[in-house]
Amino acid sequence: MKRWLSNSIYAGFAVLSLTACQPPVPSEHSQPLVSYVDHTAVKRQAIGNCWLYAQASWLESLLKTSTGHEVNVSETYWTYWDFFEKIRGGAELDEEGVFPTGGQWYRSRELIQRYGWVEQQDFQAEEESPEAMSDMQACAKDELSWALHDGGELSRPEDRTEAHIIKVLDRAFSCSGRYRIDGPHLDAHIHAAKATQVVDPKTRVSTDLATMMQRWNPIANPAEEPASLGKGLLTRSSRNALKGLEQRIKRALNDHQPVVLSFQVSFNAPNDAGVFNLDTLADAREMGHQGGHMLVLHDYTVTDAPGFAMLGEGDLPESQKAAALQGQLETLVAKNSWGSFRGDRPWLGNGFSRFTWDYLTARYWDEKSESFQPFLQDVILPEGY
User: Phi/psi at 324 (nearest 5 deg)?
Assistant: First the structure.
């Protein structure tokens, strides 16, 4: 593995405020969907790296649009290099003594710029089932947590040489010898971002992945601070700004763009149909299990569109897409990274989840900061939207 390490480009990552992705907890049910944004098979994350699964879903969607074929991009490959960069950058264990696995769009984009991407079968010699949680990622996180504890082999700054980090990572990702990373032969299978051609779903113009990623940027929730902290209400300008963001999302989805969403998920919010909504959360009277999450949108529904009671869930004629832009956004449908058709999570159905717009644009009381915080954090859109 040292050989393909030496061919990589290094620059230290700043370990900033990262999205710590939470595994699913609820037990509701959702219905199958009609494809809209072209997506690949649903996967199941094992650790808090939903942001890498979202990045892979985004890339796999563009590759499928470009070639007509499904590609299983390796999140584990990026997880390896994310762990490497975090350790080199002086990462510390979190307050629970666990190795940090969170991240965001800029970080995953930088990983691809530096290390490219590979298919899962080329990174992991003994490939795990794509439907199962990654045992390799989970045990690597656990072993690195021990290595960074006081007295561990990576606990002191002087222990964190590139060669030593690689040695510990190789052992951690082997899961006590259960898996083998095909390092000596990996160079031939690394797809550089500059060398990867992808097609824009709207214009059908081909460009390299590095350039395409630069054209997609996070747009922060435009809502201002609530005018009244006692009620957590939004100002009129905030409501107008959110309406503008809603339009941008709908226009991008109308053009089959794989829009990425970052938000706070509460597992007291889904109803019996698996739809995350504000009424169900209000009835629960508490946030319950929660955490930052990132996923890729697939479709949407609107109500009160001109001439239609409801539109969405499936590709529409141009006339209906125009009407949908004038309707009230009801739900966003997303490809999730929590698996599908799980006996312990029957609410997941085929792995696509629904979130109402009023839930995403609402605010919740955060006890730690003692302030109202927005559920919606970022929307990653291509230029022109």
Answer: -60, -35
